[in-house]
Amino acid sequence: MSDPLMVDAKGVKYFKTIPYMAMTIDNSMLNKMAENDLVESIQIDHLNEVSLNNTTSFIQADSVWAQGFTGEGQTVAIIDTGVDNTHDFFSGKIVSEACFSSNISSFDATSMCAGGVTVDTGVDSGRHCSVNGCDHGTHVAGIAAGIGSSISGVAKGADIIAIQVFSRLEGFTYCGRSGACALAFDSDIIEGLERVYELRNSYDIAAVNLSLGYGNYDSAEECDASNGAYLAAISNLNEAGIAVVAASGNNSYSNGLNSPACLSGVISVGAVNTSNNVQSFSNSASYLDFLAPGAGTVSSTPNNNFGTKQGTSMASPHLAGAVALLKSSVPNESLDNILNALSDTGTIVSSKGHSVPSINVNEAYKQLSGFDSSEGAHDVSIVVSADNEEAVYFNGVLMGSSTNWSESRTYVADLAPGNNVFAIHATDVDGIAALIAELNIQGLIEVSGTHWKISTTEESGWQDASFDDSGWDFATSYGQYGVEPWLSRVNGVDDDSNAQWIWSSDNLNHNEVFFRLVIENGAELELPSPEIINSELATGEANLPYSEILSAEDGEGPYRWSLVNGALPEGLVLDASGEITGTPIKEEVAVFEVQVADSNDQIDVAEFTIVVEAPNTVLISADLVISVDNKEEVYFNGVLLGADDTWSEASHYALNLVPGTNVLAVKAEDESGVAALIAQLNVQGETIISDDQWKLSTVEEQGWNEGGFDDSDWRFATSYGEYGVAPWLSRVDGLASNSQAHWIWSSDNNNHDEVYFRLVIENGVVPDSIAPNIATQDLPSGEVNVSYSETLVVDEGTAPFSWSIISGNLPEGLELNELGEIEGVPQIEETSVFEVQVTDANNDMDSRVFTLDIAKSNEIVATAELTISVDNKEQVYFNGVLIGTDDDWFESSQYTLELLAGENVLAVSAQDEGGVAALIAQLNIQGQIETSGSHWRVSNQGQAGWTEANFDDSDWDFATSYGQYGVEPWLSRVNGFDENSNAQWIWTFDNENDNDVYFRLIINM
After folding, report:
1. Same domain assignment for residues 486 and 512
2. Phi, psi for 148 (deg, rounded to 5)
3. CATH code of 929's domain
4. Quick check: 321 and 143 in contact, CB under 8 A?
5. Could you give the number of structural domains in the chain?
6. Strand partners, 957
7. Residue 785 maps to which CATH number?
8. Sequence-separated (6 or more) residues with CB below 8 Å from residue 571
9. Distance CA 91, CA 157 (A)
10. Nearest Cα to Cα of residue 273 among 537, 558, 569, 486
11. Which of 85, 101, 122 is nearest to 47 (CA)?
């Protein structure tokens, strides 16, 4: 193009790989270009909007992980609002960054690249921008390829290219509200696509994700004709084998997609929930390619946080990640074959009249890899770690080995018919050999436990399936994953794993252990079934909101719930997650059956009864007058009150406000204009009008009309004007001409034909209930070191009750629990004044001030003579006071003890620097002889307060007796003990290593 033609152009951008450029021009120059023979096409530089609960399991990405494939070696490019590269979810994963952003004064657009430049490919250039909505790219990137301990993205092993392409714009014209927003010009997105193409030889780029878009195109042909520059850039990427994936858009179109999803060569993705229901906001068309999860998706957000979002923006990176995951598992397959496999194996779902596949990554993997699921070919994977070295065999063949217990290994095998065996040789050169493992056998989870066989002797052929291990012992469990000393430090094992650390029963000496697990493979593998664990459901009350959650255990989540017989009380509904919600509208008893199904389609059924009692709550009546231009649906507390399509006739509804929060929710539609609403609510003489305090959204969300729905991210309504304003004037029959109600609508009042409104009404009236009364008047006194227990009594009120201290403090050593019990052992002489509060089920309260005197306990009820010897150093405490030390076990120590009423404690610290600490003792309590034995408590750890009488030693072990006085090695050489003494030498069970041991004996008087 010649320079004279471009002399008046501003902000010219030259693309690197396609014969297009972008610029800002006026109408005169536009006309000149249209007449110039050198110009082949002209298109508008449009502005684009941004378009794991663990959804990876829904598309079965985790099943591909179990085969040892995670997307490692592949890269996904995210062209979006940038990615927070400091987030733990992306640690070490972001390999390249870039920013393309515009400064265009006619749009009041400014670049969000660092320093206001329009192009930046340096370090941190792809970080997330800073205005509202800039968390979008971080969320999208996490879905595609994030990795964490509890949730991960689809291709959790893949790397990420982060490209920020959004610019900052201001005001209602572009943002639909006051303030700044992030929007992307086509030209900046195209530069992002060129950057990906430029990096094609530096990284194995599987896919580029575009969760953004604009417009409504009912065919790819129409879209291609209007977006030639896009098409050229995308064609280059397609030729390089890079998938270009884009969100279909969130405009609820039934026969149209946003650009760039509409373009030839782009893989378009719509949104479903985890029940494979297409979301109402998701655009669809006859040429929509795929569906993927896009409802309530949990992923990363900036500042190392996680959050939930919904939209086709969330669906698109599921597909981009799936391509990367499959490329890592079948690296020689073409992109076309991968997409065909995803299409062939997806679940066909009706998307607004169009049949579209919802992706299943594991089924696509099976088709691509030639996986055979028939008898004799059930795939199995094992994740294993041994402390600190293992060698893993399957049916006699060595699969691999490792010497790092903190990194688990995954091995994959095919089961042969009949018996198969995993055999593992575990070695720990300086400790005890132990193992932890998880297996996945066609969805059946098997973990290490006491059913594994174990031997400490290597026998010929022990690795083979035919080996007879009937003479081997069963393994001993040291504890579930997370137990010390390993804690939760094995990378690759989930924190909530049920796997057990297992070892030999003689856990003192075995540094080399051999493990075997036999797997019987028949035509089918028996899968565990879920079990409903609720025993009964709470009683409800007519006109009051009700909520109860059904729960299940066992089987394989996620669970799906449904009603299979009978009916819920009128006004209540059961959703697929197992939550029963709503507002019952009448007194009744409902008997019904519910079914839970797990991810393997195993089921359980249970019968329940819900009793709805007659209302015993004071309600407030209200009258609603409302008109919607031109079609309404009116809900109150989740119940549909009525619908109308005549705006000139106001609708009238009678409402009963329940105590607490009430919600008025209205769906407004106008087929050929802008949906708007006007309303007036009369509540006992007070008038509530429609105004800019109402909340609204242009997207229908699940549960939006319910009281418990969170509308905190909805925006406030915009007022068009008070009643009487044109075009409606004062023509709504039913509204007074002087009504102060406002016509309200969305801030973007040009395009929104369907708007959802909510008004929260707080009703302070509470049920007519009787407050609780603390009946206890005084508390009895206590004594130092003597157990104290007193229960506070309440009458009136509604159970259950909870108790708390609201001022002052209890005597030291005493505690008040939620049941009203004051318990403990007072520590010091004191007088305490404190205030107690009781709260009942209706949140009614009562309080009372009490005084509690603690007297010093000086009552000595008996004396005792203690004879003791410790091999070879002792510290002796009585009731928390050190009474002596000694380091000569040949000479016993003699102590006189003054026993108080109640509990007394003898506590001894024993040390032996060169052997095992042990103790022998004899107590003469006024002629009654008490000797050391296995009834003493023992620990190899000194804990805070262990010498005190009130210390809880219930989790200490009982001592182990080495033998009666006279046993070797001490014989009868302790001066002070009779040769016929019955006293026992006692120590810990681990009698090889414990040089420091702590003993306790409780003496009750």
Report:
1. yes
2. -145, 180
3. 2.60.120.260
4. yes
5. 7
6. 938
7. 2.60.40.10
8. 582, 583, 584, 585, 586, 638, 639
9. 11
10. 558
11. 101
Last residue of a domain, one of 578, 613, 648: 613
Residue 143's closest CA among 251, 204, 53? 53
Closest by CA position to 906, among listed 929, 883, 889, 927: 883
| Contact (CB, 8 A) for 314 and 294 | yes
Q: Does residue 292 surpass a pLDDT of 50?
A: yes
Helical (H) or strand (E) element with 141: helix 136-145
- Cα separation values, 184 from 49, 199, 433, 483, 655, Å: 7, 22, 58, 50, 46
The token duo for 231 is 């098409």
Q: Distance (Å, rounded) from C-alpha 378 to C-alpha 524?
A: 9
Task: Decide: 249 and 218 in contact? Cβ < 8 Å.
Answer: no
Q: In 3-state terms, what secondary structure has residue 209?
A: strand
Question: What is residue 525's predicted lDDT score, i.e. its pLDDT?
Answer: 45
Look at residues 100, 134, 138 and name the one whose alpha carbon lies nearest to residue 120.
100
The angle, 0 to 180 degrees and rounded to 10, between the axes of the packed helices 228-239 and 186-198 is: 20
Together in a domain, 264 and 325:
yes
Rounded distance, CA 1000 to CA 939, Å? 9
Distance CA 522, CA 921 (A): 63
Distance CA(357)–CA(352), nearest Å, equals 13
Give the confidence band of 856 by pLDDT, cuts at 50, 70, 90: low
Sheet-wide strand order for 802-808: 782-783, 845-855, 830-839, 802-808
588-597 and 560-566 as β-strands: parallel, antiparallel, unpaired? antiparallel
Q: What is the pLDDT of residues 509-541, one digit of tens each?
A: 677 889 898 887 653 445 568 899 999 999 998
Same domain, 690 and 609: no
User: Which DSSP string do the residues of 318-382 spell out, in sequence order?
Assistant: HHHHHHHHHHHHSTTS-HHHHHHHHHHHSEEEEETTEEEEEP-HHHHHHHHHT---STT--EEEE
- Per DSSP, 106 falls in state G
Q: Do 864 and 851 belong together in one domain?
A: no
935 contacts: CB under 8 Å, gap ≥ 6: 958, 959, 1001
User: Does residue 562 share a domain with residue 549?
Assistant: yes
Could you list the residue range(s) of the whole structural domain that residue 241 is in?
50-368
Residues 889/869, Cβ–Cβ less than 8 Å: yes
Nearest to 101 by CA among 16, 165, 37, 179: 165
Helical packing angle, 361-369 and 335-345, nearest 10°:
120
Q: In what order do the strands lie in the sheet with 418-427?
A: 397-402, 389-394, 418-427, 512-521, 453-455, 473-474
Cis peptide before 528 (omega within 30 of 0): no
DSSP-assigned letter for residue 36:
-
Q: How confident is the model at residue 379 (pLDDT cuts 50, 70, 90)?
A: low
Question: Environment class of residue 289 by beta-carbon count within 10 Å: exposed (0-12), middle (13-18) or buried (19+)?
Answer: buried
649 and 786: one domain? no
Tell me whether residue 662 is in a domain.
yes
DSSP annotation of 618: -
Residue 154 and residue 175 share a domain: yes
Q: Which of 160, 173, 9 is nearest to 91 (CA)?
A: 160
Cα–Cα distances (Å) from 597 to 58, 251, 296, 419, 553, in that order, read 14, 33, 21, 30, 11
Q: How far apart are CA 287 and CA 224, in angstroms?
A: 13
Query: What is the rounded distance in angstroms from the CA atom of residue 730 to the CA atom of residue 733?
Result: 8
Residue 474, both tokens: 């069963």
**Whole-number Å distance between alpha carbons of 209 and 238:** 13
Residues, the chain: 1005
At 319, which helix (H) or strand (E)? Answer: helix 312-329
pTM: 0.42
Query: Residue 669 above 50 pLDDT?
Result: yes
Whether residue 858 is predicted with pLDDT greater than 50 in this model: the reply is: yes
Query: Exposed, middle or buried, 115 (CB in 10 Å: 0-12/13-18/19+)?
Result: exposed
Query: Which residue intervals of 7-114 are DSSP H helices?
Result: 27-35, 55-58, 61-65
Cβ atoms < 10 Å from Cβ of 172:
13
Q: Which of 559, 586, 613 is the last residue of a domain?
A: 613
